[in-house]
């Protein structure tokens, strides 16, 4: 058993007869009244995100998990298929278990969180950033960079990201996976 002081991003807990992964939390100490922890939880079975407030010192049941590196192989529409990089076993996961499936490129190595009690995969953690090629964007107009203007661009996985005006088709860009935002252009 853990308490609210053990809450951190990525912690898996058992709550309301389901397993949830904490994706956001905030410890709040108001001037009056007891402290509490405001959390955002994502169900690892359905992918549904809920908000919950735990009072300070509240007991929570944490789930023991292991992490393993898996390589993304392909998606067949319903399932995403991964291969363990150590023993080459394969697993398949529903889209709900993935944080950002639209930024997942074939061959990408991700971290899969596995419940140690029943060896079931719970969720997939993407790397902090991914490098993808821009497949479609409107051409930028020369000299139109006085402001922090952006334009939509489609990357090779099909995701749409707002990029600066100087990015062209064929450029490789680094995308922050947590927010799905442009970070920088990659020079080759």
UniProtKB/TrEMBL annotation:
Name of one Pfam family that matches: EFP
Q: What does the UniProt keyword field contain?
A: Cytoplasm, Elongation factor, Protein biosynthesis
Tell me the ranges covered by the Elongation factor P C-terminal domain, including all copies.
Answer: 130-185
Subcellular location(s) per record: Cytoplasm
Q: Answer yes or no on keyword RNA-binding.
A: no
Q: Give the pathway annotation.
A: Protein biosynthesis; polypeptide chain elongation
**Cross-referenced InterPro entries, in alphabetical order?**
Elong-fact-P_C, NA-bd_OB-fold, Rib_uL2_dom2, Transl_elong_fac_P/YeiP, Transl_elong_KOW-like, Transl_elong_P/YeiP_cen, Transl_elong_P/YeiP_CS, Transl_elongation_fac_P
Residues annotated as domain Translation elongation factor P/YeiP central: 67-122
Gene Ontology biological process = peptide biosynthetic process
This protein's major location comes to cytoplasm
Q: Which GO terms describe its molecular function?
A: translation elongation factor activity
A GO cellular component annotation here is: cytosol
Protein family per UniProt: Belongs to the elongation factor P family.
What is the purpose of this protein?
Involved in peptide bond synthesis. Stimulates efficient translation and peptide-bond synthesis on native or reconstituted 70S ribosomes in vitro. Probably functions indirectly by altering the affinity of the ribosome for aminoacyl-tRNA, thus increasing their reactivity as acceptors for peptidyl transferase.
Name the HAMAP family for this protein. Answer: EF_P (MF_00141)
| Record protein name field | Elongation factor P
Q: What would be the name of the gene that encodes this protein?
A: efp
């Amino acid at each position: 058993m853990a308490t609210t002081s053990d809450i951190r991003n990525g912690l898996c807990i058992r709550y309301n007869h389901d397993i949830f992964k904490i994706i956001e939390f905030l410890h709040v100490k108001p001037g009056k009244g007891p402290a509490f922890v405001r959390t955002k939880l994502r169900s690892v079975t359905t992918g549904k995100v809920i908000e919950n407030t735990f009072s300070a010192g509240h007991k929570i049941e944490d789930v023991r998990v292991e992490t393993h590196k898996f390589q993304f192989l392909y998606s067949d529409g319903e399932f995403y298929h991964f291969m363990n990089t150590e023993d080459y076993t394969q697993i398949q996961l529903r889209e709900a278990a993935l944080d950002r499936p639209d930024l997942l490129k074939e061959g990408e190595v991700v971290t899969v969180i596995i419940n140690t009690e029943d060896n079931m995969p719970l969720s997939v953690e993407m790397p902090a950033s991914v490098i993808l090629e821009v497949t479609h964007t409107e051409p930028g107009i020369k000299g139109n960079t006085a402001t922090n203007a952006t334009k939509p661009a489609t990357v090779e996985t099909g995701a749409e990201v707002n990029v600066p005006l100087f990015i062209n088709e064929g450029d490789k860009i680094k995308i922050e996976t947590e927010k799905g935002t442009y970070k920088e252009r990659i020079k080759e």
